[in-house]
Amino acid sequence: MTNLEHTVDMRLHVPGRMDAPGRWRVLGFAGPAAMISVGYMDPGNWATDLEGGARFGYQLMWVLLASNLIAMVLQSLAARLGIAGRVDLAQACRAHYAWPVAMALWLLCEVAIIACDLAELLGSAIALNLLFGLPLAWGALVTGLDVMLILALQHYGVRKLEAIVAVLVLTIGACMAIELVLARPVWGDVAGGFVPRLDAASLLVAVGILGATVMPHNLYLHSSLVQTRRIEPTAAGKREAIRYNLLDTALALNIAFIINAAILALSASTFFAHGVVVTELRQAHELLTPALGTALASTAFAVALLAAGQSSTITGTLAGQVVMEGFVQLRMSPIKRRLLTRALAIVPAVGVLLYSGETGVLQLLVMSQVVLSLQLPFAIVPLIRFTSSRRIMGEFISPRWLRRLACAAAVLIVGLNGWLVMQALAPAGAGVGRIAVGLTAMLCSALLAWVAIAPLHYPLQDAPVDSVSKT
Fold first, then answer.
1. pLDDT digits (tens, 9 = 90+) for 61-105
2. Mind listing the domains of the chain with CATH numbers?
3. pTM
4. Whose CA, among 23, 106, 153, 237, lies 20 to 30 Å from 419?
């Protein structure tokens, strides 16, 4: 029984359409990546894309592309771990690292999930405000009750959840297509944005885009979701599942990339081109109508933002349950789990709204995505190590070229995070905040180094780990 069977219900396993003709067999494996792709277009992505486009025009378009390529590499590794290793990333961390290290990784992942939940909550609250005039503080409290949505959906199985998420993603895509038609970006400038350029001024936003795109908890969730498909328990069956899940991942994440690129292009062509500084999502919404000459632009913006917040709520709840069960083997109901994480996210959200009003929302969203980026190496490094272990993966150990790509991605992410931390420490003086950042950075660096080089623990047998029983 998988983690997700406890999270959703006993009807979660989906046949892999083994008896279907070759070109239709892929449909049996489609779905997990669509659920994952939601995390690549949530309100946190909107905040970083809008700020990046408004402040730097099309300059950071290449960051979106690089982030998407990194995401495809890492998500394919997560799927490989779940299919061939028959274990999700959280379970593997618990099994192969010492208990204190596993608990530290768990706590860091929970921080990332809370940061992601904060973005979902603020994004949905802003969308409700834009559509219905609901005050943001009240909207934040109302969206905290979306656990009832999860309660209603969890009894219908994973296919129904995937279908609902797919409809929400299509809604986002349709709305952004309308925006692009109205905005009419200069496509030559868009193409120029794919030439890599980065400086100290754009670093924070670039790291935020990376954190918003490659979400750490998505790696944990993907490695569990792929196990909801029944596959032939043979080498050929696993090889087929890996191949079809790679296609599923490439399709879903490229759709997410197109949507993110559309948001950044919309911001660049509408705001940057006219010298407008966007400091909040409401401002972006209000400026779209006069800038593009129709109220349809503002309405489509709000509808897409609400769909993004609600779709990411579903996958956020599933990811939280997978992480908790995998690391600490604590099976908490999705409702209790959602209430806990939402309570932890509501406190800073409502606090910021009451203290600084709407002006601090966009910056809080961007910072939540920076937190995700800072936590990302603690998911990537274990994933690379596990999928590079023949004792865990057997004959499905990652090929050398894939390991090199993944390692290059890890080095890039760690390097950008290090640059960001050094910028935070650069100002003169030895304030309490600077000391706290420095100590936290040293502790996290030591933990990451240990995770990267410490010998893995293995069960007595040499066979791949199979800590969950499949039906």
1. 999 999 899 999 999 999 999 999 888 999 999 999 999 999 999
2. 3-453 (1.10.4160.10)
3. 0.82
4. 106
